[in-house]
Automatic annotation (TrEMBL):
Alphabetical list of NCBIfam families matching this protein: citrull_CtlX (NF046062)
Stated name of the protein: Arginine deiminase-related protein
Top-level taxonomic group: Bacteria
Signal peptide: none
Taxonomic source organism: Roseibium porphyridii
Pfam family, one: DDAH_eukar
């Protein structure tokens, strides 16, 4: 039996889309989105469906419990990324978030929350989604990378991350906010924090060059080091290849790092060795999903709740 870390959930929620397509409403500020050419909408949707199916199988084989929901609708192109609209926290707490793009707001699902209440101990659900009317947005564990051990919420400023709402979330959930500015290779603000950094139990990966302010960069690094983690610095190109968009999970044979095959291919041998001192690497092949500007971390909503005993 392997010790479980509160940083690395053993259960997750995933959404399998039936009509996947990159979201035109998010393309303006998500420079990670790719161009779709030479394929019909049906081919793209079919490939995305298969990629999620195969990812769920690989995670399940590693001993991770996947609660899989189907999205058969045609109005939620980013539904495959559920980590943006809700998050779960130890002690039985759930947060529901306001989303920047109007067509992402329909991703919020009552049935997902009901399953969490049935299968896990849920004390309360704090719903911030009404703040969309005030143009306040905080897109979950896309906007924030949460250190559950040190109680820190790292957040890169963007139109999807309201600093006011971040402060409110941290006050409600007892986290220390750590805000900074981060930019991609083109000089554009990075749209979601979870594409530039990943916090594991004993390691962290971060695109340090994305944080151009040297003083703030060092403050962020110092705060990560305070948790006695091995820090793996990622290049801007590795960030563009989604190397930062990974998540540590608790598998049946120990901790694993779920990341895309593209992300893994971008890492050098030294980086892989540092990671493998802490986790087994679990690459998932999701090139079609990545056209939407997100990768493995975005697809996985970790469940940081205690399971309810189930009647036999």
């Amino acid at each position: 039996m392997h010790n479980k870390s509160i940083q690395a959930p053993q259960s997750v929620v995933m959404i399998r889309p039936h009509h996947f397509t990159p979201n035109t409403q998010t393309a303006k500020d998500n420079t990670f989105q790719g161009q779709v050419a030479g394929h019909t909408a049906e081919q793209i949707a079919s490939r995305a469906y298969s990629e999620v199916t195969q990812a769920v199988s690989a995670l399940s084989d590693a001993g991770i419990k996947v609660h899989l929901f189907e999205d058969e609708g045609t109005t939620t192109p980013d539904s495959v990324f559920p980590n943006n609209w809700f998050s779960t926290h130890s002690g039985g707490h759930i947060a529901v978030y306001p989303m920047y793009s109007p067509n992402r707001r329909s991703e919020r699902r009552h049935d997902v929350l009901e399953l969490l209440k049935q299968r896990f101990r849920v004390q309360d659900i704090r719903d911030y989604s009404g703040l969309e009317q005030d143009s306040l947005f905080l897109e979950g564990t896309g906007a924030m990378v949460i250190d559950h051990l040190e109680r820190v919420a790292y957040a890169a400023r963007s139109r999807r991350t309201s600093e006011v709402l971040l402060e409110r979330f941290c006050a409600h959930f007892d986290y220390e906010p750590m805000v900074f500015d981060a930019f991609d290779l083109s000089g554009a603000p990075i749209y979601h924090t979870n594409v530039l950094m990943c916090i594991g139990t004993g390691f962290a990966m971060i695109g340090v060059d994305c944080i151009q302010d040297r003083v703030r960069r060092q403050e962020v690094l110092d705060r990560i080091h305070a948790g006695h983690r091995d820090v793996i610095e990622l290049s801007q190109q590795q960030i563009a290849d989604f190397a930062g968009n990974a998540i540590e999970l608790s598998g049946s044979d120990g901790p694993v790092l779920a990341l895309s095959q593209r992300a893994l291919a971008s890492l050098n041998s030294r980086q892989k060795a540092l990671l493998e001192a802490h986790v087994s690497l679990l690459p998932l092949n999701i090139p079609t999903i990545e056209l939407a500007g997100g990768s493995v971390r975005c697809m996985i909503a970790g469940i940081h709740l205690s399971e309810r005993p189930q009647a036999i």
